[in-house]
Amino acid sequence: MEYDHVRCTRRCAVTGRELRPGEAFYSVLVAEGATLARRDYAAEAWQGAPDKAVGWWKSQIEDRSDKRIHWAPNDVMLDLLEQLADDVARADMRYILALLLVRRRVCRLEETLQDDARRETLRLFCPRREQEYLVTVVAPNPERTREIQDELARLLFAA
Prior knowledge:
Elements: E1 2-3, E2 24-32, E3 35-42, E4 53-60, H1 74-83, H2 91-103, E5 108-114, E6 120-126, E7 131-136, H3 142-156
Parallel strand pairs: 1-3
Antiparallel strand pairs: 2-3, 2-4, 5-6, 6-7
Helix pairs in contact: 1-2, 2-3
């Protein structure tokens, strides 16, 4: 699955109007074939999530001088973790996302399993969903780690 999306454009996908600081808006991740795209909507143009939405959230445009990081809601991040389960090409991204979810205390590491070939798998538990996740440990090289971090930031920052 390819991920071609950017941070909030600060423009409504329907009207093209620039979103103002303090204004409420909605963000949606939409499946488009084998890719995900992000779209942002002014509150007055929002008519609900499209059929192919992977996840959506409501946020507020902040002043560009505010440098705090605002992640997408935890449920959107969990949905992405689940969606990446069958994407072998993005196993390293799923591993990094799983570590982020553990760090944010959305999931907890229950144990690390090892198969006969000495491949490691993390067994995570999410109390919020009462669900277990098995995540293969695919440690990317430092350059790829940076690419994954940038890709997740573009995908999952709220503004």
